[in-house]
């Protein structure tokens, strides 16, 4: 496995939107290796999610996992999951604003409104359909990764830029809020 280089905002690949993965390609060695490398890269940089476009691959694949994470302490756990060609549907109109960061937008945080409850349909890494509901932080991470697969970053979803905060200032002024 390899730790991959992460594309930073400004890199056009983050704005293009990713190609769907064909069902018969999911099991192919290059896709499986990409998934393994994405998981390793996410863990290396303490991410809670990573989309393939962030490692310069235009494919609709996202990985996520929330454990004890120094970048996101005190968040509920989300088991390691791989979502291929995910579709999300908001369940209700309720939105919640909370802080987000992104490995492609280093050292910045901002408050982003997201749907609290969503329905997710995707394939797992074996190409099997998965269908589940996600709530709160889990739903937030999936919406953030879905955005990457469609050419958006969290900055686009902020109501305005007034909460944009460098990590050092986040820790100093906002981490407990
Ligand atoms: Ni991100």
Order of secondary-structure elements: HHEEEEEEEHHEH
What is the number of helical segments per DSSP (H or I, 4+ residues)? 5
Spatial gap, N to C terminus = 38 Å
Average pLDDT figure:
96
Tell me about the biggest sheet? 5 strands, antiparallel
Q: Share of helix among residues?
A: 25-40%
What is the CATH topology assignment? Peptide Deformylase
Q: How many domains make up the coordinates?
A: 1
Can you offer a commentary on this structure?
With 177 residues, this protein is α+β, with helices and mostly antiparallel strands. The protein has one domain (12-174): Peptide Deformylase, CATH 3.90.45.10. 26% of the residues lie in helices and 32% in strands. It binds nickel (II) ion.
């Amino acid at each position: 496995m390899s730790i991959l280089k992460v594309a930073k905002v400004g890199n056009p690949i983050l704005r293009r939107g990713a190609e769907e993965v064909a069902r018969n390609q999911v099991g192919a060695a290059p896709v499986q290796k990409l998934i393994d490398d994405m998981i390793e890269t996410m863990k290396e940089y303490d991410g809670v999610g990573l989309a393939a476009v962030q490692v310069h691959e235009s494919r609709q694949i996202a990985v996520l996992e929330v454990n004890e994470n120094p970048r996101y302490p005190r968040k509920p756990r989300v088991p390691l999951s791989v979502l291929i060609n995910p579709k999300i549907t908001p369940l209700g109109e309720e939105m919640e604003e909370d802080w987000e960061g992104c490995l492609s937008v280093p050292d910045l945080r901002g408050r982003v409104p997201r749907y609290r409850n969503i329905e997710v349909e995707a394939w797992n890494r074996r190409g099997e359909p998965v269908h589940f509901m996600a709530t709160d932080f889990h739903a937030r991470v999936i919406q953030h990764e879905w955005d990457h697969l469609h050419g958006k970053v969290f900055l686009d979803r902020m109501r305005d830029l007034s909460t944009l905060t460098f990590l050092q200032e986040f820790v100093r002024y906002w981490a407990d809020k």
